[in-house]
TrEMBL record:
It comes from Achromobacter piechaudii. This is Pyridoxamine 5'-phosphate oxidase N-terminal domain-containing protein. Residues 177-280 form the Pyridoxamine 5'-phosphate oxidase N-terminal domain. SUPFAM superfamilies: FMN-binding split barrel. InterPro entries: Pyridox_Oxase_N (IPR011576), Split_barrel_FMN-bd (IPR012349). It comes from the Bacteria.
Amino acid sequence: MTLADSTPEKTSPWHAGERMLQTHVGVADRMAQIGPKIIRDFMPDQHRDFFAQLPFLVLGAVDAQGDPWAGVLEGEPGFASSPDAHTLRVAAMPDESDPLRAGMGPGQAVGLLGIELHTRRRNRMNGRIAAWNGKRFDVAVAQSFGNCPQYIQSRDFYFSRSPALHFADARPETERLDEAARAMIRAADTFFVASYVGDADARAVDVSHRGGKPGFVRVDGDVLTIPDFSGNRFFNTLGNLTANPRAGLVFIDFERGDVLQVSGRAEVILDSPEIQDFAGAERLWRVHVRRVLRRPGALALRWRFGDYSPTALATGQWPG
């Protein structure tokens, strides 16, 4: 997440955690110049139109315990709309069983990611819930910016039922990953991560995409180790985790609509021989899982592989 702090450079959108990592890789001066140009406090028309055509949004929120959660809101395209450049209106709510629900309400900080898997486009936005009636909510934009399509697995979507029908069979929350959860993570080529900085009165939440070849997340009991590949050098997620070591991850079974949400303590690894164990990784980060929720069939959406099949991924034929 990007949060300006009380530094002399008031126009900087980067907080201390992001700047530390940008300095570590030698791009701090460049990011200081381009940051104010690419991080906006409004959504350009292209982003507003983009959100309005999506069948789902990824959302990040923080519950009363200070634990971040990532999850998915879905609806027929048009369920998200933008009445003006400073507002995103979402006509969908999380299920009662979704841990996102505990972090949502009037004035609460949230992060949103609009991602279109079949075109591999994505745009991010964060802000606070400005209007709320229990059925829909508005988010007042604090920061809006685009991301490149790198590491996004191409998939085409369809609805298996009406997204208005909710009948997820949520399992009780646990403190550990069971073998089914571990198997789901080991098979994943995609997940989404929520993180944040600041306290409840001045909080900024971010949610972002992570992708790799199936199995790119290493599972050791209840510890997940994730490679960090070359990217835009913003360090939104890792900057947050450096400043506030808490992360919420969501994994999706794209064929069955199952959702696995975990939250736990995070750590960023910048220099270790272990990095060499992950092909292409520039650094690593870990999540020590403390809370787990499995929600089979939670999503009405299903996805099929698009231009890049598992075979292509396995042979290193990455998009982009």
